[in-house]
Protein 1
Amino acid sequence: MNELIYPTLDLFIYDRRDGLGENDTEIVKNQKYFLRRLPERDHKLLKQQDSEKSEYVELLGNRGRETFDSSTTHYSLKGWVYPVGLGDSYGLLIDCSVEHSLVNVEKAKNEAFPVSCFTDLKAEIEERLANTPSTIGQVWMLSGQLSNFNPDNAEIIVKECSQVSALNLNWDLDYRGKTPFLTGILFEFWRYYLHIPSELPESLNIHDIQDNHYVIVAIYPDTSTAQKASEFNFDWLRLFAYRSKILYSYGQSQYLRKKLHDNFINIEKYQNNFNQARSGKLKLQELRQTLVDAQDTLWNYSLDLNYLLAQKRTIEVNLLNYERRLERINQKLTNFKESSNLKCLNDFIEDVNHRYLEQIKNDYESLNIGLELLNNLINSIRGLTEIESSERDRNFQSTIAIVGVGLAASSLVASITGQFPGAADAKQAAKYPVGSLISHMRVPEPWLPPAVSVTISLGVGILAALVTWLGIRAFECFRGSSVKRDKMKA
């Protein structure tokens, strides 16, 4: 069985610090979450250092790191934690290695261990995480020295590592490739899936929608190479931060895409409601409710669409930083008089450019149509409801005018008829045509004068109202013809 000398497990883990749109309360909450992974004695110092919002801040000041010692049933372990502020995020590097087995203390520097020891190392690191999974992403790095090093033996030992259940690796599905590094070899494992639920949660937890498991296994031929490799730890810390932010932003973009798609379905429903209203199958009050709903959707839709574009820009910025950091790593390798194209790490750049950025670009372009549809729909609904409202108002005003004229005419005639000669005399009133007609209807004589007055008043009022109605209709027809002529001239 192949065994590794000085097996080491590193975890690079990243959390939100002060992301876009987060207020002071949320920023403090992010800080408290991050602090849970560190000893309480370091909290005061970390808070002081955290007030400096620069691109790279060592949160333990000049001390840099916090060391620890531990032991398991079989091994004595040692390690350190290194917290940093990385602009709008936190980074934490936890390094843990097997110092010696409990029965071979004298062989501490040269003792070889089976790959199963990584189970103990991972358990130690996870205990220090204090049940606080990353809020952005994380990367595991396994490393060790192989006494009988050659490419074939290195691959054999990595395959054995992939069979350690605690490491959650699958050689057939997750293995991506290998690349020379110093005089050793880096093996890359990566599993990335998105599973957006049909019912979206109100708040986003990236682990609910994204399975991002990334592991680097580094095999070195000797102690000298391993020591040189350790000088790259802080480069890895930044490089993996950019990688994690890219995939975090892509996961967020697909969450936003689902929200926008759901709202696009609502837009189609609003359009159906509008078409029904135009055909007379929907009441004006229901159309107004559709207008309110469409305006709410417009606000949320435009906001999510802008956030989608922001995710694209975030990926572009972090990809640029990723490329620059990779160039620095290559330059450092050149200084060590070593050459490597770090192919597996460069392949990620191609993936981002041709897959993730292209996907977000296509999503934005296709979903942006919904914004135009919503604006046009809202304007159309407003126009229709305003026309309907103005038509009702105009009809109401016309009715008031007609009734008013009729009542005024009736009142005027009623006041005048009382002054006619013989208006109070039933016999005289019966001589008038109206009085004669009413008298034949067997109206009692005492009631005949007021009945004549009322009848004349009502008749004149109705006639005046009819004339007013005809006048309004004629005016509306004339106005409609004028508007039509003006449109034809235009």
Protein 2
Amino acid sequence: MSEGPATPESSDRPSDSDASLRSRRLLGRIVGVGIVVGAIGVSIWVYRELVVWPRTDDAYVRANTVGIAPHVSGPIVELPIVDNQPVEEGQVLFVVDPRPYLAVLEQAEAELLLTDLEIEGLERAVSAAQAELTELQAKATYALQYLERVRPLLAKQFVTANQVVEAESQAVATASAVTRARFQLEQARKDLGQFGGVNARRKAAEAMVYDARLNVDYCTVRSPFDGYVTNLNIAVGEYANQGQQVFALVDNRIWYVLANFRETFLEEIQPGMMAEVYLMTYPGHAFKGEVQGIGWALWQKNGSTVGVLPDVEPSLNWVRLAQRFPVRIILEPPDPARPYRMGNTAVVTIKGFPADRTD
């Protein structure tokens, strides 16, 4: 039995396979467009990260280190600190035996007392020389006046020639005595060492006392700033030499990152720009920083001077690598929960100037 002819409704209705094919084609176009848009977005992001926002992982946390050395020599009698200990400004680090310097201080103070007594004696000597000069000036004046009186009397024979000669000799002798007394007064004043309101002798004695007292104070070595003790390898009883470092302090006041950027990025970096810093010690936590400056020079072996002649390599590699210049980035104040450590590996991204900057 043959089937009847198909009705119009059954011939015009799309099959399920055609609808599924069109859906897949539409989904493919959407996915394709999404891939293109995503690629464009990723390209923009990569361009911003690598060009607009220069980035480097060749960076390390740094801090200033100061070697601690005593101003005086002697055995260490107190050492109240341990290695890697945080210290505050003014905290005692160690004490050098102060007894020899206390003895010198006592001697200097005794010398100051003796100098005061010596100055009193010299002041009396100046007064005595002044009095003697006054006395001799009076005698010289009288001798000169006497000579002027007896000279006219010689012609009238009221006095003898011998008396006149004697008067002349007396006038000359008293004048010479006045000159000698004046020199002695000047010498006494020089010996006193008084210049205006300052006595040089006492000033020198006071300077010796001050120096001795300063050395006694130097026996106690204190921290010059807040920091961390590092490389402490001494113990009580060890002899500390003047000017020789016994350990170091890491300065906790300023921390910075030295980020080595390729020279192709330097045009995009300027002092004052903000930086985002990630430390390997604290993954996922962003630290803030500010560009302080860019290094101006690198040491180059090729072209360096040997003696008086330049040392130039005879050939160059075909591949020329961009130089890296250090960029110093001052970090925000340290967080006690996430302290910085000198040598931390860092990843730095320069983000540009702050939004409120007008220039």
Protein 3
Amino acid sequence: MTALAPETRQGPRRSRRECRRCRKLQRQNEVLSQENRTLKARLRRLERRFEAEVRAGKRQAAPFSKGSPKRSPRKPGRRPGTEYGVAARRKIPEHVDETVEVALPRSCPDCGGSVKARGVSEQYQTDIPPVRPHVTRFRIQLGECTGCRRAVRGRHPRQTSDAVGAAGSQLGPQVVAMATHLNKGLGLSFEKCSDVFETAFGLGVSRSGLCQALDRLAAAAEPTYEALIQSLRQAPAVSPDETGWKLGGELVWLWTYATPALTVYAIQDGRGFDQAANVLGTDFGGVLIRDGWAPYRRFEEAEHQSCLAHLLRRCRRLIDDALAGAARFPHAVRRILLRGLDLRDRYLGAEITRHGLAVLTGKLEAEMDRLLQWNVQDSANARLQRHLLREQPHLFTFLHNPGVVEATNWWSEQAIRPAVVIRKVCGGNRTWNGAVTQEVLASLLATCRKQGVSPYPVLGEIYCSSQAPAIRFKGASSPPIRPP
């Protein structure tokens, strides 16, 4: 038998290797082609969304306008029957300052006939009388100590300052309290505040005068602000959040810490754990109801509740952008989170017992654990899965503490909205001194609003006090002190 040449013997082997390599390359080509088609489709969809957002940004629309108008909108006005809503009217005033008798006309305005009295009806009209600034002159007795020869002067509780001479004309506590409310609470500029005082009360006051008065009020309110921080550290649950703020044109951060009874703002130069711990303390032991920002996880002694609203919005975006089966994972996550919220509502509505809540919570956590073991291929879904694995121990804390822990961080979200509005109006602060004034006075105003306390007597008492005592609110470690 004739032996084959080496080339001939190796020829079929080399051909089989090439076939296997060719098949492998074909499979890789199919995978890459499919991935390329998916990415192109996603790119086209994102381009359309981007173009729509650009057009919407240039369109003149009313604030908070969302999408196109409804094709068949409901008729405006009150609904008939059971859909009427809450029947309400303006309350009858508790006191009457003046009574005016309105007599009948002598003849009928239509036919000229005589008029016969049938009874009396009452109407109440509440108005603001013309306001004239009230000026108080303090005659301060001066003297000296017979022992040490030091100068001694009197001080009245209604005085806001010891200044005399060129600085002897001061603004009263109610003016400063109202300026604080207008500027730090409602976002009016100092120029507009000055215009309000001039137009409504005939009180001339400069912008710089209002600014300096608010700085002095914030300095006097520092002990009260520190008392709010101490109360916050002892709260069973706190919801923090942060947003950008401008200081002299540079980016800093406005932090918000909220409970049902307290709100504390802090303007700081960073967005990390150190800044959060400056207010809460590194050993905070309550429950943090927060979003997924990583520095919050460093509060190791605290319990945590991850905001479900943020997760549900993220799932909704993934579902809207998903292709060819990629929506299955975010759909499953969304269903479990919504079932957790429904379980909370059923317990608070007394439909299930505490034991039943514990059993169903365990089943829900086990189902989430199985879901997070899925082999997720989509990159966006994989990022969500990794995030949920980190947050898994903190997803259902609100079911273990029903009625105490919220499922979302809406406390801080609502508290941060007024600050965002003020940021849009004023753009931030120019100096750190102004930032301190902003955080102190805004905290007092927000806390007064939550507790149903008028800020005017609170701020007035602080401004008139020579020793700046701490005004304690509900939720503090000691009983609240209400100003007269």
Protein 4
Amino acid sequence: MDQGTIAAILPLFNERHAIEGLIRRMPAQIAETFVVDDGSDDGGPELARAAGAKVICHPLRRGVGAAIRTGIDAARAGGHWAVVVMAANGKDDPAEAPRLIDHLQRGYDYVQGSRYLEAGGASLNLPRGRDLMIRGYTLIFRLLTGFPASDVTNGFRAYRLSILDDPRIRIDQSWLDRYELEYYLYYKALTLGYRTGEVPVSKTYPAQTGRKKVRYTKIRPFIDWWKMVRPLIYLKLGIKK
């Protein structure tokens, strides 16, 4: 297998508190880090650039899917072989990226990080309600794809860019601009027969201390839940390609 360099993609929206540290902790296997700013107004992009990342800015907020797509385009233009996608909010540990990269180098096409796998998977401060929703959605995903997934919603992923040359995978569709793209691509990788696997990773949520609750996600109830679910429905019923 022709293997080349690997880039990291971090979609960014107002994560000033975490982005600089993440970039500085990128492992040696990451040749280039693309931070795609999706309309931040907190100075995070400037910190990312100073830390050594290549920052690409959307003038207006378009959504995490659009940001990942922009990062993919940049990685492909840069001649990279594969990408690792991770959160820009500090929940993912860049030091664990080699776990996903190792699987790619062993012949996998798409690798999903899982907080629920033994021998390295962990989840710190995960709210109980969130945990139940993740497990429920993952169960639906398993039933529809036949793949024994354990953590479908984890945004820590890696894949070979050449799978996007498959005409049956169309990430350019505008309906994938928000949370849809990640689940669309995972579903496609599984159902089109690409070699897909999971590796254990950790996920750290902010600790809830005192009376004031710390916001742990930007996902809006119902509105964004639908955006996460509809790729499964649309693709299974043949409504979208």
